[in-house]
Design goal:
This protein is α/β, with parallel strands linked by helices. The protein has one domain: Rossmann fold, CATH 3.40.50.1820. It is about 35% helix and about 20% strand. Strands 1-2-3-5-4-6-7-10-11 form a nine-stranded mixed sheet, with helices on both faces. Strand 10, helix 12 and strand 11 form a beta-alpha-beta unit. The radius of gyration is 19 Å and the shape is globular. The two termini are about 35 Å apart. The N terminus is likely disordered.
């Protein structure tokens, strides 16, 4: 997660502000299961047509899944930049939190690489990536697991992953049976995918997410005084390769940025479609609590009911582990019961 910190600071700073910054196929590999106290953690791989590669996924199966015969809601939990599919279990003890809640849901944790869970206009060169890491934000990452043939991470989640999960596990394959959540970059992805696909997801939750892609200030947040980025071609110009990375993902057309900006999406979202949860620590080193406060006010001004929490904590798993039971319970309350 240390590597995640670097880019998140960039998103918080945006263009002009300088706050302090500290065709779904069957699985190609049979799942292997490791028993937990009550549920089980499954590791598997599946083919992604959108990315053009095989991806890894970790799945939590609730206690009794093997024998109950029930169909369960599926919650999708996305990791942050610099993380992978193992983070929610290894860093966040998600299986332990789910067991403590006696959660009757399947929790799916995919590998989202460094793509911000968006369908990007950028071109990628798979062969060059495999040769020397070209095109990766972190070139030292394992190339076989990270290089892709197309940067279509939104389609990867909404088509490939959801299709594979529904075909592989006993899910409730309807909007009412799905929810999505994430931390940091994954919080951004959860909000955007949830709001862009209200026909697929009943709820979305963001822990310390990049909740306002176009937010430029002020720091601290002040309602009525918000500055939003308008010159996308120069977004992050002072940030060198980091600003270029973000521009590379979303391109130079501001319409694309607005299409992935949670507060912009919040202006048209229908109440409860999806149900929304936001939280962030007030000591977030990347100033993302100001993003959350801004999105909260946009939703409140529209009369969109949502759950919102700002409280002590930083941008780390100490905060996320404490809040994880809250989002799991929120998603449980907003989705269908096992059948």
């Amino acid at each position: 997660m240390m590597r995640a910190a670097v880019l998140l600071a960039i998103v918080a700073c945006s263009n002009g502000s300088s706050p302090p910054a500290p065709a779904i196929k069957p699985p190609v590999l049979a799942p292997t299961t490791t028993a937990t106290t009550r549920g089980s953690v499954v590791k598997a791989r599946f083919d992604s047509a959108a990315l053009g590669v095989t991806k890894h996924v970790v799945v939590y199966l609730p206690a009794g899944y093997e024998t109950s015969g029930k169909r369960y809601p599926a919650f999708y939990y996305l990791h942050g930049l610099g993380g992978d599919e193992t983070n929610w279990v290894e860093g966040g003890n998600l299986d332990g939190a789910a067991d403590a809640l006696a959660l009757e849901a399947i929790v799916v944790m995919p590998d989202g690489d460094d793509g911000f869970y968006a369908d990007s206009p950028k071109q990628v060169d798979y062969d060059a990536c495999m040769k020397d890491g070209t095109g990766l934000f972190f070139p030292e990452r394992p190339r076989k697991a990270t290089c892709i043939r197309a940067s279509k991470y939104e389609t990867y989640i909404t088509k490939d992953l959801v299709g594979w999960v529904d075909a592989t596990y006993r899910t409730l394959p309807t909007r009412e049976g799905r929810a999505i959540a994430g931390l940091s970059m994954g919080g951004f992805g959860a909000l955007v995918i949830g709001m862009r696909h209200p026909d697929m997801f009943a709820a979305a939750a963001s822990h310390s997410g990049v909740d306002a892609l176009l937010y430029e200030g002020p720091f601290p947040y002040a309602k009525g005084k918000v500055q939003l980025a308008t010159d996308i071609k120069n977004w992050g110009g002072r940030l060198g390769p980091f600003g270029g990375w973000i521009r590379g993902i979303f391109g130079t057309d501001i319409a694309t940025w607005k299409a992935y900006d949670p507060p912009t999406l919040a202006l048209t979202v229908e109440p409860g479609k999806p149900a929304l949860y936001l939280d962030c620590g007030t000591e977030d080193g990347f100033m993302l609590h100001h993003h959350a406060a801004y999105l909260h006010d946009v939703l409140a001004d529209r009369g969109i009911d949502h759950e919102f929490f700002l409280g002590p904590g930083g941008h780390d798993f100490a905060f996320w582990k404490a809040r994880l039971p809250k989002s799991l319970a929120f998603l449980r309350a907003k989705t269908a019961k096992p059948q």
